[in-house]
Amino acid sequence: MNLKDKIIVITGGASGIGAAMARRFAAEGAKHVICADRDLVGAQSVADDIGGTAIQTDVSLEADITSLIESVEKDIGPIDLFVSNAGIIMEGGAEVADDDWQRIWDINVLAHIRAARTLVPEMLARGGGYILSTASAAGLLAQIGSAPYSVTKHAAVSFAEWLAITHGDDGLKVSVLCPQGVATSMTADIDTSTVAKDGMLSAEAVAQITLDAIEEERFLIMPHPQVADYIKQKGSDPERWITGMQRWQRMLNEQAS
Ligand code: NAD
Questions:
Q1: Which of 99, 104, 132, 211 has its CB 3.0 to 4.6 Å from that of 175, i.e. a possible disulfide?
Q2: What is the ipTM of this complex?
Q3: What's the gap in Å between 107 CA and the centre of ligand 1?
Q4: 3-state secondary structure string, the chain?
Q5: Quick check: CB of 180 below 6 Å from ligand 1?
Q6: Whole-prediction pTM value?
Q7: Does residue 110 line the site of ligand 1, with CB under 6 A?
């Protein structure tokens, strides 16, 4: 998929990875980038820089997600790419209170599902569309010290896989981004003593990796500190950072031929 002339919505577009994607995708010639975030001031500042639109959205509320999608489609046009990127981190384990588990579940998991509930039937009716969600490397391997984050990100990866398996043949494109150690406000606030600082990627690097992956229609995109060098010199061994569905698809193709 080429982003030129596309209408793109990015949740969590006020800062970090979402803001970097908004800037990168706009520079790539997107027709309109909509930054949706509960932080309207931050979203507006990014939107002003790129000639886009900011819409205040709390992704933990289904009504906000529905209204975001409906207002964009009514006032701007059909959404070509929806980036479900807003997320929070929460440290702790089983002792974390149910209310807090529910809060992170609503943002890190239900938001993806609720967006798909509105978007997928509409995208399928017009022949397809692209949904990209930001999960985490913690969605592939549990992260020490953060059960709520790991569990919800696993669920986000699983939902993306389900979407791809269910609707991939109907024209819907799905990708799930699984980064680790990206220098944003999220990692500034947490204890990163277990994360190698020199392995951290910038949000801009992740946005570029995401752009490459969207254009090449990759499913699981995994910028990981251990492969940061590879990612910088893109093109050496994709097996190391593109996993999951793509390998599985390749295996099926090999079996069929
Ligand atoms: P960030 O804190 O800079 O950005 C997160 C954005 O999401 C913020 O603008 C915030 O206002 C918004 N947000 C949070 N809750 C929201 C809600 N309920 N409704 C609307 N907006 C909300 O952090 P980031 O690192 O850019 O995170 C973006 C995504 O990347 C998240 O899903 C995060 O889990 C994921 N991620 C980040 C890292 C990392 O190392 N930074 C690693 C793996 C995955």
A1: 132
A2: 0.99
A3: 10
A4: CCCCCCEEEEECCCCHHHHHHHHHHHHCCCCEEEEEECCHHHHHHHHHHHCCEEEECCCCCHHHHHHHHHHHHHHCCCCCEEEECCCCCCCECCCCCHHHHHHHHHHHHHHHHHHHHHHHHHHHHCCCEEEEEECCHHHCCCCCCEHHHHHHHHHHHHHHHHHHHHHHHHCEEEEEECCCCEECHHHHHCCCCCCCHHHCEEHHHHHHHHHHHHHHCCCEECCCHHHHHHHHCCCCCHHHCCCCHHHHHHHHHHHHC
A5: yes
A6: 0.89
A7: no
